[in-house]
Amino acid sequence: MPLIRTIQIDPETRLGVWSIEEQESFFRERVNISPDIHHPHKRLQHFAGRYLLVTLFPEFPLEKIKVSDSRKPLLLCDSFHFSISHCGDHVAAIVSTKAAVGIDIEEVKDKIERVSHKFLSPSERDFIDPRHSLPHKTICWSAKEAMFKWYGLGSVDFKENLVLQPFVYQSTGFITANFVKPDSNTRLYLQYIMENGLCLAWTHPV
Ligand SMILES: CC(C)(COP(=O)(O)OP(=O)(O)OC[C@H]1O[C@@H](n2cnc3c(N)ncnc32)[C@H](O)[C@@H]1OP(=O)(O)O)[C@@H](O)C(=O)NCCC(=O)NCCS
C-alpha cells in the first residue's frame, strides 16, 4: 500500500504521499527517465517522486521536466505546476494545473530546535508553544520550505522574506503567511499535517 495519502485539494490540485517499499526497478519500469544521481537512496527517492506525479495526474509529461538554475524542476509550458519533497522512505508531491505550489515533508528532529534561531524571527519565536516547541518549530520550518519551493527562484532569507502569522500548535492546521521580497509580495495559505513524527506542509493556489 505505497500510496498512503491523497488529497484532492480542489478540482485542479492534487497532493499525494508515497511510502517507498519498492525496489528502484519498480519505478524504473514505469517512468521513462534516467536521473544522473549516484547515491542509490537519493535516486530511489527521485524516481518515486516522479512516479508520484504521474500517479496523481496520469497525463503529466515527465519527459518535459527541466531543472532551473535554482534547481527547481518545472515544465516550461506550465501545463502543470508541481513540487516534490522526500524524507527517508517517504515522498510527497503536489500538482496543480492552476498556479504555483510548494510542499515539504520533514521528520521531527532535534536539529530543528538547534537551528531555529536561523529561520524564525523574534515575532515568530514569540508564538511558539513552549510545551510543544520542537513539533511547533518543525511545522514552521516545513511551512517555510514549502514557501521556498513555491517561489522557486532561490535566494530567500527564511527570517526576513518568509513571514508566518501566529498559529496555535495542533496536529493539523492552517497557516497564513507572507512572502515578502522586493520582486514579490504575496499572501500565501498553507496547511499542515503532523503524524507519526512526520510533518507535511504545503501551499496551493486559492
Ligand atoms: C532545495 C531545498 C528546498 C531542498 O530541500 P530538502 O529538504 O533538501 O529536500 P526535499 O526532499 O524536501 O526537496 C527536494 C526536492 O525539492 C525540489 N527542489 C530543489 N530545488 C528547488 C528549488 N529551488 N525550488 C523548488 N523546488 C526545488 C526538487 O524537486 C527536489 O527533488 P528532486 O531533486 O528529486 O526533484 C533545500 O535544500 C534548500 O535549499 N532550502 C533552503 C535553504 C536555505 O535557504 N536555508 C536557510 C534557512 S536558515
UniProtKB/TrEMBL annotation:
Keywords: Transferase. Residues 100-160 form the 4'-phosphopantetheinyl transferase domain. InterPro entries: 4-PPantetheinyl_Trfase_dom, 4-PPantetheinyl_Trfase_dom_sf, P-Pant_transferase_sf. GO terms for biological process: lysine biosynthetic process via aminoadipic acid. Pfam families: ACPS. One of its GO terms (molecular function) is magnesium ion binding. It comes from the Bacteria. The keyword Magnesium does not apply. Gene3D superfamilies: 4'-phosphopantetheinyl transferase domain. GO terms for cellular component: cytosol. Belongs to the P-Pant transferase superfamily. Gsp/Sfp/HetI/AcpT family. This is 4'-phosphopantetheinyl transferase superfamily protein. The lineage of its organism: Bacteria, Pseudomonadati, Bacteroidota, Chitinophagia, Chitinophagales.
